[in-house]
Amino acid sequence: MYRGLLVVNAFLRTSKFDELYTFLAQAAEKEKMQLDVMTNAELVCALEGDFVPEQYSFVVFWDKDVLLAQRLEKLGMRLFNSARGIALCDDKSLTWLALKDQGIPMPRTVPAPMTFPNIGYPTLDFAAQIGNKLGYPVVVKQCCGSFGQQVYLCHEQQQLLDKVKELAGVPILFQQAVVESMGRDVRINVVGGQVVASILRRSTAGDFRSNLTLGGEMEPYSPTEAEARLAIRAAELLGLDFAGVDVLFGKDGPILCEVNSNAHFKTTLACTGVNMAQAIMRHIRAKIGGCV
């Protein structure tokens, strides 16, 4: 029996997260694999003691602790997903940079110049210029954020300048708004280079964001060939074994919004009946068993 390690965050142990971990452990059992659970805090301490990496055939790294992921890879452990893939997804500016010259359609994007929290932006001329170049409305995103809660829509220049000043010291980027897709997008779940399940997400409160945690509705969705190809290619380029790829409806075809390296799949299960944990563990079992 293969034995694996599930790494989770020590400080996000809510029922919502714990339920996902249970799904993964149960799916591993169905694949005749054992999955031990450790938090990143427990593992950091264990690495300074008698931790034996050879006891595990694989690691399901369900966290964004990139430094810890890199340490495990240095020990020769096989991570799903890799430290590189997690890092590229966790920072939206790195996602954009990794994909921008690879034929992946994305909103026109400009990362903000770096500053320091104790300095801020004494001048906002650059933000005004970016707003003029992208055209309004402009989307401002914190480079690291989840569930749509660090994404803002600015309709005119002063609103944009106020938001940039408020966020000074936080890495952000600017994007041209895809107005055709306001309030709706598609979450395409990819595992092992294949689309496993997709849902259409739609805001019901007039919000330009479609994240279900912000309020909205969902329904099963069959992606077009172009949408599926985009999601699969983005996951491949980022080196991901599994991913939740968010796709927008552009006037000329699908546009990549973002890629999630450890996307929450409970809503996908509720909407489609597809248990992403089973697909993920089947993929891992095939990989470590040398079947693919």
Instruction: Give the helix level as a range of percent.
Output: 25-40%
Q: Work out the strand percent.
A: 25-35%
Strand order of the largest sheet: 11-10-9-12-13
The biggest beta sheet reads: 5 strands, antiparallel
Shape by Cα distribution: globular
Q: List the uncertain runs.
A: none
- Structural class by helix and strand composition: alpha+beta
Radius of gyration of CA atoms, rounded to a whole number: 20 Å
Rounded mean pLDDT is 93
Order of helices and strands: EHEHEHEHHEHEEHEEEEHEEHH
Count of alpha/pi helices: 10
The tally of beta strands, per DSSP, is: 13
Report the end-to-end length measured between terminal Cα atoms. Answer: 18 Å
Short characterization:
The chain has ten helices and 13 strands. By secondary structure, it is α+β, with helices and mostly antiparallel strands. α3 links the parallel β3 and β4 (79-80).
Keywords:
13 strands; 292 residues; 10 helices; alpha+beta; 5-stranded antiparallel sheet
Please tell me about this protein's structure.
The structure is a single chain. This protein has ten helices and 13 strands. With 292 residues, it is of the alpha+beta class. The strands form three sheets. The protein has a five-stranded antiparallel β-sheet, with helices on both faces. A four-stranded parallel β-sheet has the order 2-1-3-4. α1 packs across α10, α3 (66-74) runs antiparallel to α4 and α4 crosses α5. The radius of gyration is 20 Å and the shape is globular.
